[in-house]
Specification:
heterodimer; A: about 100 residues; 3 helices; B: about 350 residues; mainly alpha
Chain lengths: ~100, ~350
Protein backbone atom coordinates (compact mmCIF):
# COMPACT_ATOMS: atom_id res chain seq x y z
CA UNK A 1 0.00 0.00 0.00
CA UNK A 2 2.61 2.55 1.04
CA UNK A 3 4.94 1.40 -1.74
CA UNK A 4 2.26 2.09 -4.36
CA UNK A 5 1.49 5.37 -2.65
CA UNK A 6 5.12 6.46 -2.91
CA UNK A 7 5.37 5.28 -6.51
CA UNK A 8 2.22 7.27 -7.29
CA UNK A 9 3.71 10.42 -5.77
CA UNK A 10 6.85 9.95 -7.86
CA UNK A 11 4.72 9.59 -11.00
CA UNK A 12 2.81 12.77 -10.21
CA UNK A 13 6.06 14.63 -9.58
CA UNK A 14 7.36 13.39 -12.95
CA UNK A 15 4.18 14.64 -14.60
CA UNK A 16 4.28 18.16 -13.21
CA UNK A 17 7.36 19.41 -15.21
CA UNK A 18 5.57 18.49 -18.43
CA UNK A 19 2.73 20.83 -17.49
CA UNK A 20 5.20 23.55 -16.54
CA UNK A 21 7.16 23.22 -19.79
CA UNK A 22 3.93 23.12 -21.76
CA UNK A 23 2.81 26.34 -20.12
CA UNK A 24 6.17 28.01 -20.71
CA UNK A 25 5.97 26.90 -24.33
CA UNK A 26 2.48 28.35 -24.63
CA UNK A 27 3.70 31.67 -23.30
CA UNK A 28 7.04 31.89 -25.07
CA UNK A 29 6.74 30.17 -28.45
CA UNK A 30 6.52 32.46 -31.48
CA UNK A 31 3.36 31.43 -33.30
CA UNK A 32 0.09 29.56 -32.97
CA UNK A 33 1.33 26.26 -34.41
CA UNK A 34 4.37 25.92 -32.15
CA UNK A 35 2.24 26.92 -29.15
CA UNK A 36 -0.26 24.22 -29.98
CA UNK A 37 2.59 21.76 -30.25
CA UNK A 38 3.90 22.71 -26.80
CA UNK A 39 0.50 22.64 -25.20
CA UNK A 40 -0.92 19.36 -26.46
CA UNK A 41 2.21 17.24 -26.43
CA UNK A 42 3.32 18.29 -22.98
CA UNK A 43 -0.11 18.17 -21.40
CA UNK A 44 -0.90 14.73 -22.72
CA UNK A 45 2.25 13.14 -21.28
CA UNK A 46 2.02 15.20 -18.10
CA UNK A 47 -1.59 14.26 -17.56
CA UNK A 48 -0.71 10.64 -18.33
CA UNK A 49 1.82 10.60 -15.50
CA UNK A 50 -0.53 12.40 -13.10
CA UNK A 51 -3.34 9.95 -13.90
CA UNK A 52 -0.95 7.02 -13.51
CA UNK A 53 0.16 8.37 -10.14
CA UNK A 54 -3.39 8.91 -8.94
CA UNK A 55 -4.39 5.46 -10.19
CA UNK A 56 -1.57 3.90 -8.16
CA UNK A 57 -2.84 5.75 -5.10
CA UNK A 58 -6.50 4.88 -5.70
CA UNK A 59 -8.21 2.55 -3.27
CA UNK A 60 -10.87 1.10 -5.55
CA UNK A 61 -10.86 -0.32 -9.04
CA UNK A 62 -13.70 1.87 -10.26
CA UNK A 63 -11.69 4.96 -9.33
CA UNK A 64 -8.89 3.68 -11.57
CA UNK A 65 -11.38 3.10 -14.38
CA UNK A 66 -12.76 6.60 -13.99
CA UNK A 67 -9.27 8.11 -14.04
CA UNK A 68 -8.42 6.19 -17.21
CA UNK A 69 -11.66 7.37 -18.79
CA UNK A 70 -10.80 10.97 -17.91
CA UNK A 71 -7.35 10.59 -19.44
CA UNK A 72 -8.80 9.08 -22.60
CA UNK A 73 -11.40 11.82 -22.91
CA UNK A 74 -8.84 14.57 -22.42
CA UNK A 75 -6.60 12.93 -25.05
CA UNK A 76 -9.45 12.83 -27.54
CA UNK A 77 -10.62 16.34 -26.75
CA UNK A 78 -7.19 17.96 -26.77
CA UNK A 79 -5.98 16.32 -29.96
CA UNK A 80 -9.26 17.12 -31.73
CA UNK A 81 -9.32 20.73 -30.53
CA UNK A 82 -5.65 21.13 -31.45
CA UNK A 83 -6.49 19.95 -34.95
CA UNK A 84 -9.47 22.32 -35.15
CA UNK A 85 -7.49 25.35 -33.98
CA UNK A 86 -4.66 24.62 -36.39
CA UNK A 87 -7.14 24.06 -39.21
CA UNK A 88 -8.89 27.34 -38.50
CA UNK A 89 -5.51 29.10 -38.44
CA UNK A 90 -4.55 27.58 -41.79
CA UNK A 91 -7.91 28.59 -43.25
CA UNK A 92 -7.23 32.14 -42.10
CA UNK A 93 -3.92 31.85 -43.98
CA UNK A 94 -1.72 32.40 -40.94
CA UNK A 95 1.80 31.52 -42.07
CA UNK A 96 3.81 29.14 -39.87
CA UNK A 97 6.72 30.87 -38.17
CA UNK A 98 10.20 30.30 -39.54
CA UNK A 99 13.57 31.49 -38.29
CA UNK A 100 14.49 33.35 -41.46
CA UNK B 1 -4.96 22.30 7.78
CA UNK B 2 -2.62 20.67 5.33
CA UNK B 3 0.01 23.33 4.38
CA UNK B 4 0.00 22.28 0.71
CA UNK B 5 -3.76 22.71 0.48
CA UNK B 6 -3.54 26.02 2.36
CA UNK B 7 -1.00 27.24 -0.19
CA UNK B 8 -3.32 26.09 -2.98
CA UNK B 9 -6.24 27.93 -1.40
CA UNK B 10 -4.25 31.14 -1.09
CA UNK B 11 -3.33 30.95 -4.77
CA UNK B 12 -7.01 30.43 -5.61
CA UNK B 13 -8.10 33.36 -3.47
CA UNK B 14 -5.51 35.62 -5.13
CA UNK B 15 -6.17 34.37 -8.66
CA UNK B 16 -9.95 34.82 -8.60
CA UNK B 17 -10.12 38.62 -8.13
CA UNK B 18 -7.10 39.07 -10.40
CA UNK B 19 -8.78 37.10 -13.20
CA UNK B 20 -12.01 39.00 -12.58
CA UNK B 21 -10.20 42.31 -12.91
CA UNK B 22 -8.36 41.24 -16.06
CA UNK B 23 -11.66 40.09 -17.52
CA UNK B 24 -13.40 43.40 -16.83
CA UNK B 25 -10.44 45.49 -17.93
CA UNK B 26 -9.79 43.61 -21.16
CA UNK B 27 -10.53 45.72 -24.24
CA UNK B 28 -10.54 42.62 -26.43
CA UNK B 29 -13.88 40.86 -26.11
CA UNK B 30 -12.57 37.47 -27.22
CA UNK B 31 -9.88 37.61 -24.56
CA UNK B 32 -12.54 38.59 -22.03
CA UNK B 33 -14.59 35.51 -22.92
CA UNK B 34 -11.57 33.23 -22.54
CA UNK B 35 -10.78 34.85 -19.19
CA UNK B 36 -14.41 34.41 -18.16
CA UNK B 37 -14.20 30.70 -18.87
CA UNK B 38 -10.99 30.33 -16.87
CA UNK B 39 -12.61 32.30 -14.06
CA UNK B 40 -15.50 29.83 -14.15
CA UNK B 41 -13.13 26.86 -13.94
CA UNK B 42 -11.22 28.36 -11.01
CA UNK B 43 -14.55 29.20 -9.35
CA UNK B 44 -15.57 25.57 -9.78
CA UNK B 45 -12.32 24.48 -8.13
CA UNK B 46 -13.09 26.88 -5.29
CA UNK B 47 -16.49 25.27 -4.80
CA UNK B 48 -14.79 21.89 -4.62
CA UNK B 49 -12.48 23.26 -1.93
CA UNK B 50 -15.54 24.55 -0.07
CA UNK B 51 -17.00 21.01 -0.14
CA UNK B 52 -19.85 21.95 -2.46
CA UNK B 53 -19.47 19.50 -5.35
CA UNK B 54 -23.00 20.15 -6.63
CA UNK B 55 -22.31 23.84 -7.13
CA UNK B 56 -18.88 23.00 -8.56
CA UNK B 57 -20.44 20.75 -11.20
CA UNK B 58 -23.05 23.36 -12.10
CA UNK B 59 -20.43 26.10 -12.24
CA UNK B 60 -18.11 24.10 -14.47
CA UNK B 61 -20.86 22.93 -16.83
CA UNK B 62 -23.05 26.03 -16.99
CA UNK B 63 -20.86 28.88 -15.73
CA UNK B 64 -17.66 28.07 -17.55
CA UNK B 65 -18.76 25.79 -20.38
CA UNK B 66 -22.15 26.78 -21.69
CA UNK B 67 -22.09 30.46 -20.81
CA UNK B 68 -18.67 30.67 -22.45
CA UNK B 69 -20.07 29.02 -25.57
CA UNK B 70 -23.02 31.45 -25.49
CA UNK B 71 -20.64 34.40 -25.24
CA UNK B 72 -18.54 33.09 -28.12
CA UNK B 73 -21.56 32.67 -30.37
CA UNK B 74 -22.80 36.13 -29.38
CA UNK B 75 -19.37 37.52 -30.19
CA UNK B 76 -19.41 35.94 -33.62
CA UNK B 77 -22.83 37.42 -34.35
CA UNK B 78 -21.65 40.78 -33.11
CA UNK B 79 -18.66 40.69 -35.45
CA UNK B 80 -20.84 39.79 -38.40
CA UNK B 81 -23.18 42.62 -37.50
CA UNK B 82 -20.35 45.10 -37.12
CA UNK B 83 -18.79 44.12 -40.41
CA UNK B 84 -22.01 44.86 -42.24
CA UNK B 85 -22.67 48.10 -40.40
CA UNK B 86 -19.16 49.43 -40.12
CA UNK B 87 -19.32 51.96 -42.91
CA UNK B 88 -22.55 53.46 -41.68
CA UNK B 89 -21.25 53.42 -38.13
CA UNK B 90 -18.05 55.27 -38.93
CA UNK B 91 -19.96 58.03 -40.65
CA UNK B 92 -22.29 58.39 -37.67
CA UNK B 93 -19.44 58.48 -35.21
CA UNK B 94 -17.68 61.22 -37.10
CA UNK B 95 -20.92 63.17 -37.16
CA UNK B 96 -21.30 62.79 -33.38
CA UNK B 97 -17.76 63.85 -32.71
CA UNK B 98 -18.30 66.98 -34.71
CA UNK B 99 -21.38 67.86 -32.71
CA UNK B 100 -19.89 67.47 -29.22
CA UNK B 101 -17.09 69.94 -28.55
CA UNK B 102 -13.92 68.17 -27.35
CA UNK B 103 -13.61 70.06 -24.03
CA UNK B 104 -17.11 68.95 -23.05
CA UNK B 105 -16.27 65.31 -23.74
CA UNK B 106 -13.18 65.52 -21.58
CA UNK B 107 -15.16 66.96 -18.69
CA UNK B 108 -17.89 64.32 -18.82
CA UNK B 109 -15.51 61.50 -18.01
CA UNK B 110 -14.38 62.32 -14.42
CA UNK B 111 -17.97 63.16 -13.45
CA UNK B 112 -19.18 59.79 -14.71
CA UNK B 113 -16.35 57.99 -12.96
CA UNK B 114 -17.05 59.83 -9.74
CA UNK B 115 -20.73 58.96 -9.87
CA UNK B 116 -19.98 55.31 -10.55
CA UNK B 117 -17.52 55.21 -7.68
CA UNK B 118 -20.03 56.86 -5.34
CA UNK B 119 -22.68 54.33 -6.35
CA UNK B 120 -20.25 51.50 -5.78
CA UNK B 121 -19.29 52.74 -2.32
CA UNK B 122 -22.93 53.25 -1.32
CA UNK B 123 -23.86 49.75 -2.45
CA UNK B 124 -20.89 48.22 -0.68
CA UNK B 125 -21.81 50.03 2.54
CA UNK B 126 -25.43 48.89 2.19
CA UNK B 127 -24.32 45.34 1.58
CA UNK B 128 -21.96 45.36 4.55
CA UNK B 129 -24.66 46.89 6.74
CA UNK B 130 -27.24 44.27 5.77
CA UNK B 131 -24.64 41.56 6.31
CA UNK B 132 -23.98 42.87 9.83
CA UNK B 133 -27.72 43.12 10.50
CA UNK B 134 -28.42 39.54 9.42
CA UNK B 135 -28.93 37.34 12.47
CA UNK B 136 -26.39 34.56 12.58
CA UNK B 137 -27.66 31.06 13.18
CA UNK B 138 -24.82 28.70 14.05
CA UNK B 139 -24.53 25.83 11.59
CA UNK B 140 -27.20 27.28 9.34
CA UNK B 141 -30.13 25.08 8.44
CA UNK B 142 -27.91 22.02 7.95
CA UNK B 143 -28.87 20.18 11.16
CA UNK B 144 -32.59 20.74 10.52
CA UNK B 145 -32.25 19.37 6.98
CA UNK B 146 -30.36 16.35 8.35
CA UNK B 147 -33.19 15.63 10.81
CA UNK B 148 -35.84 15.75 8.08
CA UNK B 149 -33.88 13.71 5.50
CA UNK B 150 -35.89 10.54 6.13
CA UNK B 151 -39.04 12.18 4.80
CA UNK B 152 -37.60 13.45 1.52
CA UNK B 153 -37.22 10.24 -0.47
CA UNK B 154 -33.63 11.05 -1.46
CA UNK B 155 -30.23 10.67 0.21
CA UNK B 156 -28.54 13.83 -1.04
CA UNK B 157 -29.21 16.85 1.15
CA UNK B 158 -28.76 19.22 -1.77
CA UNK B 159 -31.36 17.44 -3.85
CA UNK B 160 -33.68 17.25 -0.85
CA UNK B 161 -33.50 21.02 -0.47
CA UNK B 162 -33.71 21.79 -4.19
CA UNK B 163 -36.59 19.50 -5.07
CA UNK B 164 -38.42 18.83 -1.85
CA UNK B 165 -38.10 21.55 0.78
CA UNK B 166 -37.64 24.40 -1.67
CA UNK B 167 -39.12 22.78 -4.75
CA UNK B 168 -40.89 25.94 -5.85
CA UNK B 169 -37.56 27.76 -6.14
CA UNK B 170 -36.41 25.17 -8.63
CA UNK B 171 -39.77 25.33 -10.37
CA UNK B 172 -39.34 29.08 -10.80
CA UNK B 173 -35.74 28.63 -12.00
CA UNK B 174 -36.91 26.23 -14.69
CA UNK B 175 -39.59 28.74 -15.65
CA UNK B 176 -37.02 31.55 -15.90
CA UNK B 177 -34.92 29.43 -18.24
CA UNK B 178 -38.02 28.66 -20.31
CA UNK B 179 -38.88 32.36 -20.50
CA UNK B 180 -35.33 33.15 -21.61
CA UNK B 181 -35.65 30.69 -24.48
CA UNK B 182 -39.05 32.17 -25.36
CA UNK B 183 -37.49 35.63 -25.41
CA UNK B 184 -34.69 34.55 -27.71
CA UNK B 185 -37.09 32.75 -30.02
CA UNK B 186 -39.40 35.72 -30.30
CA UNK B 187 -36.51 38.05 -31.12
CA UNK B 188 -34.57 36.24 -33.80
CA UNK B 189 -34.34 33.32 -36.10
CA UNK B 190 -31.18 31.21 -36.39
CA UNK B 191 -28.66 32.75 -38.77
CA UNK B 192 -27.51 31.44 -42.08
CA UNK B 193 -24.58 29.02 -41.88
CA UNK B 194 -21.22 30.46 -42.84
CA UNK B 195 -19.71 28.76 -45.82
CA UNK B 196 -16.14 28.61 -44.50
CA UNK B 197 -17.25 26.81 -41.38
CA UNK B 198 -17.89 23.46 -43.01
CA UNK B 199 -16.75 20.99 -40.40
CA UNK B 200 -14.04 18.52 -41.22
CA UNK B 201 -13.99 14.77 -40.68
CA UNK B 202 -12.25 15.12 -37.30
CA UNK B 203 -15.02 17.18 -35.74
CA UNK B 204 -17.66 14.90 -37.22
CA UNK B 205 -16.09 11.75 -35.80
CA UNK B 206 -15.43 13.49 -32.48
CA UNK B 207 -19.11 14.32 -32.26
CA UNK B 208 -20.05 10.75 -33.16
CA UNK B 209 -17.82 9.50 -30.37
CA UNK B 210 -18.68 12.04 -27.67
CA UNK B 211 -22.40 12.68 -28.03
CA UNK B 212 -23.56 9.17 -26.97
CA UNK B 213 -21.13 9.30 -24.06
CA UNK B 214 -22.41 12.70 -23.01
CA UNK B 215 -26.00 11.45 -23.06
CA UNK B 216 -24.98 8.58 -20.78
CA UNK B 217 -23.16 11.00 -18.46
CA UNK B 218 -26.22 13.27 -18.37
CA UNK B 219 -28.43 10.36 -17.41
CA UNK B 220 -25.90 9.28 -14.80
CA UNK B 221 -25.76 12.76 -13.29
CA UNK B 222 -29.54 12.90 -12.96
CA UNK B 223 -29.70 9.40 -11.50
CA UNK B 224 -26.84 9.91 -9.04
CA UNK B 225 -28.38 13.25 -7.99
CA UNK B 226 -30.64 11.53 -5.49
CA UNK B 227 -27.72 10.28 -3.43
CA UNK B 228 -24.64 12.30 -4.39
CA UNK B 229 -23.55 15.38 -6.33
CA UNK B 230 -25.51 15.77 -9.54
CA UNK B 231 -29.02 16.60 -10.57
CA UNK B 232 -31.26 18.05 -13.23
CA UNK B 233 -29.28 21.20 -13.95
CA UNK B 234 -25.93 19.42 -14.19
CA UNK B 235 -27.36 16.65 -16.35
CA UNK B 236 -29.20 19.17 -18.49
CA UNK B 237 -26.01 21.17 -18.97
CA UNK B 238 -24.13 18.10 -20.21
CA UNK B 239 -27.02 17.32 -22.55
CA UNK B 240 -26.92 20.90 -23.80
CA UNK B 241 -23.17 20.58 -24.37
CA UNK B 242 -23.90 17.58 -26.58
CA UNK B 243 -26.41 19.73 -28.45
CA UNK B 244 -23.85 22.51 -28.85
CA UNK B 245 -21.34 20.02 -30.26
CA UNK B 246 -23.93 18.78 -32.74
CA UNK B 247 -24.74 22.36 -33.73
CA UNK B 248 -21.05 23.14 -34.20
CA UNK B 249 -20.56 20.09 -36.37
CA UNK B 250 -23.71 21.06 -38.28
CA UNK B 251 -24.92 17.48 -37.91
CA UNK B 252 -27.82 16.62 -40.17
CA UNK B 253 -29.66 15.00 -37.25
CA UNK B 254 -30.12 18.36 -35.60
CA UNK B 255 -31.20 20.10 -38.75
CA UNK B 256 -33.95 17.61 -39.38
CA UNK B 257 -35.70 17.93 -36.03
CA UNK B 258 -39.10 19.46 -36.73
CA UNK B 259 -39.73 22.64 -34.82
CA UNK B 260 -42.97 21.29 -33.34
CA UNK B 261 -40.95 18.58 -31.62
CA UNK B 262 -38.51 21.18 -30.32
CA UNK B 263 -41.33 23.26 -28.91
CA UNK B 264 -42.70 20.18 -27.15
CA UNK B 265 -39.24 19.41 -25.74
CA UNK B 266 -38.93 22.95 -24.43
CA UNK B 267 -42.33 22.86 -22.75
CA UNK B 268 -42.20 19.28 -21.44
CA UNK B 269 -40.05 19.87 -18.33
CA UNK B 270 -41.68 23.06 -17.04
CA UNK B 271 -45.14 21.68 -17.80
CA UNK B 272 -44.58 18.40 -15.98
CA UNK B 273 -43.05 20.24 -13.03
CA UNK B 274 -46.06 22.53 -12.86
CA UNK B 275 -48.53 19.68 -13.28
CA UNK B 276 -46.93 17.69 -10.48
CA UNK B 277 -47.05 20.76 -8.26
CA UNK B 278 -50.77 21.01 -8.94
CA UNK B 279 -51.21 17.26 -8.54
CA UNK B 280 -49.59 17.42 -5.09
CA UNK B 281 -52.12 20.09 -4.13
CA UNK B 282 -55.05 18.09 -5.45
CA UNK B 283 -53.91 15.03 -3.49
CA UNK B 284 -54.23 17.09 -0.37
CA UNK B 285 -50.80 18.48 0.38
CA UNK B 286 -49.25 21.86 -0.25
CA UNK B 287 -47.58 22.98 -3.46
CA UNK B 288 -44.97 20.32 -4.32
CA UNK B 289 -45.58 18.39 -1.10
CA UNK B 290 -45.09 14.91 -2.49
CA UNK B 291 -46.85 11.87 -0.98
CA UNK B 292 -44.52 10.53 1.71
CA UNK B 293 -43.96 7.01 0.32
CA UNK B 294 -43.35 7.89 -3.30
CA UNK B 295 -41.40 11.16 -2.88
CA UNK B 296 -38.25 9.63 -4.37
CA UNK B 297 -40.06 8.51 -7.51
CA UNK B 298 -41.70 11.93 -7.94
CA UNK B 299 -38.36 13.67 -7.63
CA UNK B 300 -36.66 11.31 -10.08
CA UNK B 301 -39.44 11.75 -12.63
CA UNK B 302 -39.41 15.54 -12.34
CA UNK B 303 -35.62 15.65 -12.45
CA UNK B 304 -35.20 13.48 -15.53
CA UNK B 305 -37.86 15.27 -17.57
CA UNK B 306 -36.64 18.67 -16.40
CA UNK B 307 -33.03 17.77 -17.24
CA UNK B 308 -34.11 16.87 -20.76
CA UNK B 309 -35.92 20.18 -21.18
CA UNK B 310 -33.08 22.16 -19.63
CA UNK B 311 -30.68 20.53 -22.08
CA UNK B 312 -32.85 21.42 -25.06
CA UNK B 313 -33.46 24.94 -23.73
CA UNK B 314 -29.76 25.69 -23.20
CA UNK B 315 -28.87 24.28 -26.61
CA UNK B 316 -31.68 26.38 -28.11
CA UNK B 317 -30.22 29.45 -26.41
CA UNK B 318 -26.88 28.62 -27.99
CA UNK B 319 -28.49 28.25 -31.42
CA UNK B 320 -29.72 31.75 -30.76
CA UNK B 321 -33.14 31.93 -32.37
CA UNK B 322 -36.22 30.04 -33.35
CA UNK B 323 -35.72 27.35 -35.96
CA UNK B 324 -36.84 27.77 -39.52
CA UNK B 325 -40.41 26.80 -40.18
CA UNK B 326 -40.76 24.31 -43.03
CA UNK B 327 -42.84 26.90 -44.89
CA UNK B 328 -40.28 29.66 -44.29
CA UNK B 329 -37.38 27.48 -45.34
CA UNK B 330 -36.05 28.90 -48.57
CA UNK B 331 -33.31 26.39 -49.17
CA UNK B 332 -32.38 23.02 -47.78
CA UNK B 333 -29.03 24.31 -46.49
CA UNK B 334 -30.73 26.30 -43.73
CA UNK B 335 -28.90 26.69 -40.45
CA UNK B 336 -29.19 23.78 -38.11
CA UNK B 337 -31.99 24.20 -35.65
CA UNK B 338 -31.68 24.07 -31.91
CA UNK B 339 -31.72 21.22 -29.49
CA UNK B 340 -30.56 17.68 -29.52
CA UNK B 341 -33.79 15.88 -30.17
CA UNK B 342 -34.89 12.47 -29.17
CA UNK B 343 -31.42 11.21 -28.26
CA UNK B 344 -31.78 13.01 -24.95
CA UNK B 345 -34.18 10.41 -23.66
CA UNK B 346 -31.46 7.85 -22.95
CA UNK B 347 -31.86 7.70 -19.23
Amino acid sequence: MTFFHGLGTVCILIGVPFFVSGTIGLLRFPDIYTRLHALTKADNVGLGFVVLGLALQAEEWNTVARLLLIWLLVLIASSASCHLVARAALQKKIQPWSRS
Amino acid sequence: MNPVMAFFDIILVLALPWLGWRLLASPDLFRAVVLFMSLGLLMSLTWVRLHAPDVALAEAAIGAGLTGALFLSALRRLERLQNSERRLDDAEKREEERQIPPEKRRRAKPVAYGLALLLLVVFMLLLGWSLLKTPVSPGGLGPEVAVQMGRTGVQSQVTAVLLNFRGYDTLLEVMVLFLAALGVWSLTRVGQPLQEEVSGPVLASLVRMLVPLMIIVAGYLVWIGSSRAGGAFQGGAVLAAAGVLLLLANATVVRQIPSTLLRCALVLGPLLFLLSAIACMSIGGNLLEYPRQSAGAWILLIESVTAFSIGVTLAALYAGGRPFEPSALEETSGESSAGDGEEGEGK
